[in-house]
Amino acid sequence: MELYIVRHGKTDWNKECKFQGAQDIPLNEEGRAAAVKLAERLKDVHFDEIFSSPLSRAYETACIISTGSLSLSKGVLKIDLLKEISFGEGEGVPFDKWMNTDEPRKYFFDEPAKYVPPKGGETFESGIKRMAEFVHTVLEPYYNKNPDARIMVVAHGAILAALMCVLENRGVEHFWGNGLKGNCEETIYKYDGKNWMLESEEKPQENPYVKMAKKGSDVSTGNGPASIIQKSDSDSIEKTVSVLKQGGVVIIPTDTVYGFSGIVGNGSDDRIRAIKGRAETKPLIQLIACPEDLKKYTDDVVPEKLLQKWPGALTIIVNTKPGVGGSGASTIAFRCPGDEWLRKVISLCGAPIYSTSVNRSGQPVLDTQSSIIEEFQPEVTLIVNDGDKKGALPSTLVSITNGSVKILRQGSVEV
């Protein structure tokens, strides 16, 4: 028998990083769209049964999947045992406030064996007991009737972690296994009548909820939730430089759009790519404090007509000197930004800083503070607010690597 375990699609409380528990929070449009995509991906898979939590965010996810092109003639069956673990009085509390306490609820992710739920909540041990009952009274009898069956279970993060504890014979100290599953992601197990075996690839999840639980929100690894400051604050430069020097990832306003930034050479480029979900290894744009600094990194002779555009929204790709630039690449794009505040930050950092647009790889660039905070506050260290940048043009991009000026992208600066 094959068992597909699926976490429900996103809700508004997911995006706001709030504990949901037994609260019946509905899917949002992003969650519905993800469920539709999963249904399309599994359209040729036959399921003999789909079991769901009775909470609407899970049940609607399951119904969307079942009404796709799946070979399933009957509807989704609600199972009360699959309801999410209750978090009692902690339901609706944001993750950062949940962790910022001396109460044992703070061990929720980090040391689950020490976790004690808020008043009215359910323990992890109780969740594991419920899932053992589900396995013994629902799944195993189904196998006895049809050993070749393929089953799907759609439920919630914590109760699915409890289910996998049962399948893998894990104790509560290893409650989260390799991490909380992503929304509308499946994990597949196979059962031979005696043992449950993981059939799908298992890997740690890049999940902001788990990142937020790490002790101290360690600035050196770039873990959030991010502090938010105003660019206009008198100490904004000092705070930004301090975070960058400690290895943090900062969302920073530039003379074009907002950008992910980190100091070149301290590994922040890898952290930025992880946040963006960017697998490619080509070097990120580097921002320098003054035009003269470019000579430190290249022997190319930059035409005067280009240098006259600096400081400004012009990015120039050059051949780099051996062993410089922080990435080992033979060519790197540099910009001396037109924003004086940003140039002061770079100067005080004592090295160039990376800059790349604020978005998930392949998704539109985010240009409002509300969308940036909603999407990325859990994953970066600091966000510097300078208002919305709707309609802002990217920098003009040129290359001089072959001895002539080649315009690769026409932006806000005419070349």
Report on this structure.
The chain has helices at residues 12-15, 29-41, 56-66, 95-99, 124-145, 157-168, 208-213, 236-245, 268-276, 304-307, 340-349, 369-376; strands at residues 2-7, 49-52, 77-78, 150-155, 186-191, 196-198, 227-230, 250-253, 258-261, 285-287, 314-319, 331-335, 353-357, 382-385, 396-399, 406-409. The protein is built from 12 helices and 16 strands. The strands form 2 sheets. A 10-stranded mixed beta sheet has the order 7-14-8-9-13-10-12-11-15-16, sandwiched between helices. A 6-stranded mixed beta sheet has the order 3-2-4-1-5-6. The chain has 415 residues and is α/β, with parallel strands linked by helices. The longest helix has 22 residues, at 124-145. Helix 5 packs across helix 6 (157-168). It is elongated and about 80 Å long. Residues 203-223 have low confidence and may be disordered.
How do you describe this structure in short?
The chain is an alpha/beta fold and 415 residues long. It has twelve helices and 16 strands. It is elongated.
Topology of helices and strands:
Layout: E1 2-7, H1 12-15, H2 29-41, E2 49-52, H3 56-66, E3 77-78, H4 95-99, H5 124-145, E4 150-155, H6 157-168, E5 186-191, E6 196-198, H7 208-213, E7 227-230, H8 236-245, E8 250-253, E9 258-261, H9 268-276, E10 285-287, H10 304-307, E11 314-319, E12 331-335, H11 340-349, E13 353-357, H12 369-376, E14 382-385, E15 396-399, E16 406-409
Parallel strand pairs: 1-4, 2-3, 2-4, 7-14, 8-14, 10-12, 11-15
Antiparallel strand pairs: 1-5, 5-6, 8-9, 9-13, 10-13, 11-12, 15-16
Helix pairs in contact: 2-3, 5-6, 8-11
